[in-house]
Amino acid sequence: MHFSNEKPGCCHPGFSSIHGGDFMDIKNVLVGISGSIGAVEIQNYLAALRSTWGASVHVIMTESAASMLQSKTVNYFIDGNVFLKSTDSTDQFKIPHIHLTTWADLMVIIPASANIIGKVANGIADDLLSTAAMAAKCPVVFCPNMNEHMLNRPAMQRNMHQLKEDGYLIIDPGEEEAIQLSTGQKVQGAMPGFSQFIPRLEETLRGQGLYV
């Protein structure tokens, strides 16, 4: 997979200054898992990243995500480490929010809850995931996953608009329809199904002139 940085104004502000040349190979992906119910299916998305792109993957989980899904389960589906807090340092990543985002060619936050979207949109960095998203110099893609009524609230729409204004990318959930786990009803506002995740991710990147 390759990125083009021909449109430096339409992606994360640090992208063009960090990754020179016309194209960039994606080898390293940092995945952020926030506390949306979609986290319970994350293994399928991690498997898609690794099998389709052959990417090396490290993961950051929020405290809320870790309450739904054990980190050791996530570890089984990646070749890297799972980080839960800023003190989870390793020899390679002594300061996780800096060293992980320097290592990454792409950061994907999936599922992206209303909470993590609101934090980053408003400059709040109070845990490892929000801090990493704000420190990243690579493209950062949010995959919102929430109740459709929450998604359509003015505050959420403002936050998503602000993320785009700040150079973050969003896989628009507006056309995605899924079964809401809490009610069993078909709803919109869901992240792509795992079979559509990579195509939608590539489409989002291509739409900003980043994917060739």
Automatic annotation (TrEMBL):
Pfam family, one: Flavoprotein
Source domain of life: Bacteria
Gene Ontology annotations for the cellular component aspect, listed alphabetically: phosphopantothenoylcysteine decarboxylase complex
GO molecular function: FMN binding; phosphopantothenoylcysteine decarboxylase activity
Alphabetized InterPro entries for the sequence: Flavin_trans-like, Flavoprotein
Record's protein name: Flavoprotein domain-containing protein
GO annotation terms (biological process): coenzyme A biosynthetic process
Annotated ranges, domain Flavoprotein: 27-177
